[in-house]
Structures are given as structure tokens and as C-alpha cells.
Amino acid sequence: MKELNPIFITVLQVVIVLAIAPVFIGWLNMLKCWSQGRSSAGLLQPYRDIAKLFVKDIVLAKNASWIFRFTPYLVFSVPVVASVIIPIISTNLLLSPTADIIVLIALFATARFFTALAGMDIGTAFGGMGASREMMIASLTEPAILMAIFTVSLAGKSTSLAHIAQVFASSVPIMRPSLVFAAIAFAVVILVEGGRIPVDNPSTHLELTMVHEAMILEYSGRHLALIEWGSMMRVFLFVTLGVACFVPWGIAKTGNITEIALSFFFMIIKVGIIGAGIVFVETGIAKMRLFRLTEFLGGAFLMATLGMLSFFILE
Amino acid sequence: MILSPINLAIFSIVLLFVPVLLCALIRQNPLVLRVMAFSLAAFASFLSFIAGLWTLSSGVTNQLILPIGLPALPFHLRLDPLAGFFLMVVGLLAFFVSIYSIGYVQGLGTKRPISRLIVFYNLFIVGMLCVILADDALSFLIAWEFMAGASYFLVLFEDEHVENRRAAFLYLVIAHIGAMAILLAFGVMAGVATGFGNFDGYTFDSMRQATFSPQWATVAFVLAFFGFAAKAGVIPLHVWLPEAHPVAPSNVSALMSGVMLKTAIYGIVRVTFDLLGSFPWWWGALVLVLGLISAVMGVLYALMQHDLKKLLAYHSVENIGIILIGIGLAMIFTSFKFTTMAALALIAGLYHTLNHAMFKGLLFMGAGAVVHATHERNMDEMGGLIHHMPWTAVFFLVGCISISALPPFNGFVSEWLTFQAFLLSPSLPAPLMKLIIPLGAALLALTGALAAACFVKVFGVTFLGHWRGHNRPHIYETCWPMRIGMMLAAMSCLLLGIVPTFLVNLLDGIAETMVGSKLNVAASGTYNWMWLTPMQPERASYSGFIVLIGIIITISIAYLLFHLKSGKIQRGDIWDCGFEKLNHNMQYNAISFSMPIRRIFGFYFNIRERVRLMPQLTSPAFPLKLYYNLRVRDRFWGWIYKPIIEAAFGISRQMGKLQQGQIHLYLIYSFVTIIVLLAVVL
Amino acid sequence: MSLKILEQVNSFLAALVLLTAFAMLAQRRINALIHVFMWQGLFLSISTAIVGFIANKHHLYLSSVLTLSLKVIVLPYILHVLIVRLKIRKEVETIVNIPMTMLLGIGLVIFSYHLTRPIMELSTFITRSTLSVALATVMIGLLMMITRKKAITQVIGFLAMENGLFLAATSATYGMPFVVELGVALDVLIAAFIFGIFLFHINTTFDSLDVNQMARLKEDI
Question: Is residue A1, in this structure, part of any structural domain at all?
Fold first, then answer.
């Protein structure tokens, strides 16, 4: 059997993330349309949106500084860097020791930091509002993320993603209460970081409910395309992060071609199912009031903490 | 005289006295005085940095006895790796700040003579260096008081305002209460070491060799920790910090916040790990808990501020908390004999010490530049400075990213190491700790995220958007010395972030002498300097360098692909929802930015919010004007300080009754005193 | 192997019982609260049956069925009837806010782990690890009684406490003798009836189920 070079696998992962993230969002939109009895625009609609935005010219706010122009590139580049590190189709990656899961989360936080600054750069009320809300939500999510990571690293004896995925993938699949709790907490984190309902609504431009959209309201043309693409990759990567931490079974551990093909196939199925779960939540719950989020995110923190406690108590 | 680290350090201290003399010699020409004095200070600080680095990399310990001080107790000096590291921290930041001061002091010099600033500035640095070099209780305390006194006069530099005098007084009072506690702690330790018959017990060497009974060790530790915590601004002893730091000139605030607080950290590490040696776990738990409280409360208070320098001062409380978290964990691990883990936690704490010195110094320098340009400390009156001060904006942004613990800058490295230390806590044998310590990690994560929120606010409100105040003064970019000072600090923030292994390897030497174990982060491999692997490589690793390179490469590819192909960009007005009456007062400001967090964590503060509407008679739905008043106060002031102050006043009033104004009465007092004394003594 | 898996399932169910205890703390609506209570009963009865299988104690099957019928069907029905009859407002009213009670709950879990650890080290039963969960459930039930205003939520808190005790009994000693269990079950049923009657009386006396109103019972001095 032919062995693939780790460098090649790494490049392949980047390509997969760049290509599949829009399809994943298309899949979410499609399921959502179906569940609400509408006809959908198809899996490839996000591609068309991005392509259209790339063609359009940019109209920049008069007050915009270099921060505003730099942010789209950073927002686009962080997921690309992350896709080199997260084990998506194989744990045999060249650069996976570059960052562990804590670094990854912090990398995404850097992108968010700049998005919030870009929101404040143009000097509109919307931008500031979005930035303020986004940072508030982020700071309430962070403890939950860290607790979930803590629980996972207790079970996997590591915070390195490739290592965690390898350990779990070679163990017998049993339901460990600690990991189930941590997974539930992480599911909430995916909803938050992806800006999905009930935390934020990606398809609204209503003043009172926008969070992420409020910050990027002034973007146009290829800047907007990069940001949209970047946030699609961000959602996708958070889902694969969840897969690598909680359901890595089936991931390739070597560079074997058939194994990688199988692993790709499993990944598509897992991600598809998680996408269906996200849509299920999104159609089932209404968007929450901003200050109700405290309890929602507090619940996620509670889940993750219970996971950590039950690791010591029950396992 | 042989060239050795300690001689170099002493030489730099001597050199720092030269600017003081210069003030007396060339008073007529302020320009020459300013440039020469601060250049010399910069050079001397750089020498002490070299001395520290030299000690740290060679790992040797120098000792020296100077024939000054008491006859029976001359000054003992000692430069070991721990002292070397702190010498390095002080020297490096003082070097940057001195370069910055060449330009900065120019703006202060019009109203009052700058010679006072120069004298006390240099004495202040001398004090800090001596504290670190001291190897006996006497010289330590003398240097400590020297440092406190010099900084008191620096805080008081602009003494025409009442609040400055009040802040300086508060600082002096708390500094002396702390110093008294340290004095008592040394007294206890010396007494246990050799008894009070001679002065030998006051050298740190004899304290090191002494064995302490648990009770006396605890008394000494609690006293010393209280004293150092008062200096470091650990909650609840932090009240002086947000008062004193904002009113001092910004170069002084940079030094006070960046390195003076670190001398207290040095004291804690020195007394616990070196002098006392072994300790029960609950000391570490105490330090950890106070560190966590300071970190979370510090950042929450900072979020509520809209005075730029006050906000930064509260962030010092937060960062001291983060450093103490590392040290507290190291103490817990040491008491359970997990030396490698203790080494990791201690290195995390010390690494954050240097990081905090760099980015907080940078931020205070940047704040100084901003205040200098706008004549304003209230952020709500600023905005859009990035267009007028592009250099300062970039440096300030670097500081903001670093302090928010975001990769690839330095703040993240130390926070990451602290997280790794937290993640190792489940191997502790005590079951209750296994369950409770991880919650501390969650609090640290909360702190980091809140700090990021706070610095989005700081940078967004100060540098981005439009000018928020009434009439904008003419704002100009800072002069070159200030820029260079900030640039160097920003560069070291980046370097410490992307190549942390060099410093961690140096810090290993300290860990070996203090907790008796090394980390060996880069044991094998050719490119090992790129990867920071605190424990086993499969457990966790981080390479800030590759992260940075990766981001740069992807950004450039994206830029080349998408930007250069079609460069057409047109500028337009912002979208106003068809309202057409947008003005700059509709932007978010510091108060509105922190409103959601103020609402969620409101129970921590003493908040008074007043809204008054001026209704229009014809259509009350559209009021004419709205007045909004917000006051957020520290709860600790009311809880702890007010009762103490009131009690002190009460007692004083009672004592005041002794004073009747009649000379006979006073003579009777003296007479009675003499009689009583004679009766007691004889 | 199968025993190992069953043990795993059992500890998982214990975790779910703990989770439902926290879910009860988090609920804002009384109807949802009763639903969560039903779930807790369900998990409890399955866990009892599994312990019965592991320990080969047949009377545990009976208690499992008893739990199922009583706590999943009868008691929730009674509570529903009470709510409808008394026209109780649908929201849970709290004294301490919900995130705070959650944090207190976490503290209680840690505390009960600390308390039961010595017992767990002595015990040889494979279900011993659920003991601290059981104790935590009891304490959280008590916490709910303390921090909620309405009498009906206090009743549910009491019943949750009983669930915790039941779990403790099965995990620490593989269940009490059947006679005792039957007696306890009857007690709980009767207690529910008595509570119902009490609630009626409180309601008619004060026109409210807010237990703070009881403060009015004391004589004015």
C-alpha cells in the first residue's frame, strides 16, 4: 500500500477545509430550509456567494484605518493555520505539535479580537455594539471551553489534539460520563463560536439581535468574501475539533491511502450528522435574549465542570 | 577589580548616581541635562540587565560584603540566578523607559524643574536594584525604604492637585504598613536563626541554614506575605495602586507598575522558597487563592474604568494575580514533592513577571504618549488617534494583544504555561485539591477573556473610531526617543512570544536552585528551540514561531491572490440606516462598551447609575437632553478601609483630649512619665 | 466483560441522576421541573434494576418497578393535579439567583465527594462510586428547598432528596430490605398527599403559595 507523506496530508487537510467549509454551511442552510418547509438554494450556494463577493468592488468607510483592512486577511488566515494542526483526516500530521488545543482556541480568539477592533474602527454604533457583545459572550464562554478541555485532557492525558485523537480512537468506544458531559458543553461552545442560534443569528441584520454581523456590517467586496469564508471555516473547524476530541473513531493513524480515504468518508458522515444536530437546535430554539445567555453559557460551564468532577468521582 | 556580574551590577548602581550629580552641575541647560541624565540612566540600566543575564546564563552565585552599614552588620550583597533574573527584568524595562523618558520629560518640563524628577527617578532605580542585590535584612529594608521613598516623591511630582497628594499619602501609608510587616517577619526569622544576641541572624545566609519550627515559619511567612502583598497590590491591599499609578508621570508609572511591583514578587519567592525552604501546602493554597481573587477582581475593576491610566493600574492587580497563581501552584506542588511540576509552575510565574514588565511598561509608555498628545486621561473624550499617531498606535496594539494573552505574543506563553501547570494538578495526592484546583484554571480562562474584552475597549475607544470629545486639540505623533523606547518594548514582547525556549532554559537554573528540579524543555532535536514542550512532547507543545510564520505566509498569499489582482477601493460614508443624522457621539464609548459585563458582574461593584431626562413639552417621547451619570466604586474600600480609618480617627479624637493647651498639664504629664519610668526601671 | 459494561452504564446513570438534579436547579418553569423529576425517577429505576442484576438481588427488580410506577407516574400526576387545581403560576420563584445556586451545587458535589471518599475506600461493592453522587443529590434537593420560594417546588425538592437517599441505599448496600423500601415508598406517597392537603390549606389561608407568607403566622409583639 502506498504511504502518503505527512506534508502531503497536511496540504490535503488545508484544501479539504477550504473546499468543504462552504459546502458544510450549504448543508446547514439546506437542512434548515427543508425543516422549515422552504426549498433550498442547494449545497453550493455559499460558493456562489463568495465568488460574487470577490468580483465586487470595495467601498471602504471614510474613517477606516489599516486595522479594518487587515482584519479580513487575519480572519481568513487563522482557520487556514488551524487546519494544519487539527487532525481531520489523519493524526499523522507534520505540524500538529505546533499548537495544542489551548493554543488553537487562543488563535481563534486573536481573530475575534481583531474582528471586534475592526467593528470599532469605523465609528458606528453598530460596530461598537457588536464588539461589546461579542467580547462579553466570548468571556463567558472561555471558562466552559477550558473546563471541557480539562476534562478531555484528563481522559487523554494530553492537550495535544493529535495525541488525544489517537488515544481515543484506539480505545473501546464506551460512554464515559465525563466525556459525554464535556461533549455537551463543547456542543454549546460550537454554537457560540459559530455564531449560531440561540446565541447569534447568522442570517439577521436586525439591530437588536446582531452580534457578529454588526461588527462586519461595513465590509464589502473581497474583504467581506474573506470574512465570510473565514467564518465558514471557523464553524467547520470547531465541528472537526469536537470530532477529534470526542468521536475520533475511524480517523487514520498512518499515511496509508485507503485508511485516509476511509477516514475522509467517516469525517464527512460525522460532520454531516453534527450539522443536522446544529440545525435541529436552531429550528427548535428561538434566539435568546442577550442577558439570558449568562445562564445558557453558565449551563455549559456547569456541564463541563460536572464532566471533570465525574471523571474523579465515577471513573 | 575583576569583571564579574556583581561588580558590573554595583558599577551600574554607582553610575546611576551620576545623573543625580549632573542635576546639581548643569541646571541652566535643561535640554543637555535631560538628554545626558536619561542616556546615562539608560546605559546604567542596560549594564544591570547584562549583569543579570550573565548571572542567569552562567548560573554562578556571586557574593560580596560592602563595608558600609552597621559595624556588626555590613551590607551583604549576593547575586544568584533568582536575583539575576529580577535584575534583568528591572534593567531591561528601566533601559526602555529611560530612552523613552528622554523625549517624554520634555513635555513635563515647562511648569516645574525636571531636576527633581531626574534625581528621584535614578534613586528609584537604585533602590530597586539594591533590593534585589541585598543579602541581609538590614540592607534589604534600607533599599526597600529607599525605593518606597523615591517613588513617593515621584508620585507627588505634580503636587498642585489635591488628589495627587492624597494618592501619594495613601501609597506611603500602605507601603509603610507593608514594610513594618516585612521587618517583623525578618525579625522572627533572625530570632529563630541565631537568637537576638548578635546580628549574625540578620544575614540571609544564616536564615537559609536555620531550621524553623512550623509555628514560627508560619508567623514569618504570613507577615512577609502580607508585607509583600501590600507592595504588589494583591486584593484587598490594592487600593493605593489605582490611585498612585495614574497620577505619577507616565514613565514613572511604567516603572512602578512594570518593575516595582515585581520586587514584591521577588520578595515572596526569596522568602518562601529560599529562606524558609519547606512549607505546608496551605501556604501555597493561600497564595493561589489570593492570586485568583486578584486576577478576576482586578480585571473586572479594570473593565469598569474609563480613565486610561487607572484602567492600566487595575490590570497590574490582575497580572500580579496571574503571577501569584503560578507561584502558588509551585508552592503546592513543592509541598507535595512534585518538583518537576513545581518547576513548571514557578517558571510560568517568573515568565509572566518578565512579560508583564514588558507589556505593562509598553502600555504605560503608550498611555503617556496619548495623555501627552491629548491632555486627557478620560478615554470617553478620545478616539481616532490611529490616524494621528500611527506609530504609537501600532506599539500600543502590540501591548494590548500581549496583555490579552493572545498568540503569538508573550502574554500567551506564560498563561499557557500556567494552564499546563493547572492541567498537571490532578496528579496531586489530596483528593479535595484535585477537584478544586481545576476550577482555578476556569477562573484564569475567564480572566484572560475579560482582559481581551477590556483591551478591545481600550484600543477601540482610544485609537479607533472618531474623536469623541468636544473640540479636538492638535494631535501629533510622539518624538523619536519615545518611539524607540516603545518600539524596543514591543519587539521584546514579540520575541518573548515566539522564541520562549531561550528564556525558559535560562529560568530552569532558578527552578533548579529553588525547587530542586529542571524542566529541560528542549532536550533533543535540531530545531528544538522552536517548540516549547514543558513536559513530554506528546502531552503538549507550542511553537509561537511557526504560528507567526504560518499566519504571515497565509496572509501574504491571500493578499497577493485577492488584493493585488483588483486594487480598486473607493471610500464612502458609513451606512446610517437612512437616518442621515449620525454624529460622533453615537459611537460606543468606554462606558457603553462595558455595560453588558457591568450588568452581569454588577454585584461585585458599588454602582450608582443616574439617568435624568429633559422632556420636551410638546412631544415627551423625544426628550431634549439626557444626562447620564455613572459611578463605580471599589467595594473593598467600604468593607475594609473605611472602618479602619474611622476607628483610627475615633482613637485619635480620644487621644486628643490629652491636649488641653495648659502648660501645667503638660508638665504634669512629663513629671508622671518620669516617675513611672523610674519606678519601673529601678 | 458484560459486568464491566454494566458497571459503566450504572455510573453513567448515576451521572444522569446528578445531571437531572442540576437540571432541576436550573428550571424556571414548574411543568418542566416536574418533567425533569420524572426523568430522574426513570434513571433511578433503571439504575436499580441494573444493580439488581449485577448483585443478583431479585427484590431490587421489585423496587425498580415500584420506583417507576411511583416516581415516574403517580407522583408527577398528583403534582400536575395540584398545579391545575391551585392555579399555581407557572414560573419558579427563586431567592438566590440561578447561576449562584449552580455554583453552590458544584461546591456541594465536591463536598460530598470529600465526605464519602473514606467510605468508598472501605467498600467493596462495584457500585460504591455512585455513593457520592447520591449524597450530592440529597444535598442539592435540600439546596433547592432552601433557595426556592414556592411550596410546590419545595415538595419537589423533598422528593428529589428522597431519590438521592434511594440511590445511596442501592449503591452503598445494594438496597435496603424490601419491607423497608415498601414502607418508605408508602411514606413518600402519603407525604405527597399530606403535602397536597397542606398546600390547599396554605393557599386558602394566604391566597398564595409563597412560603415567605408563613412569616405572618408569628404574633406581632
Answer: no
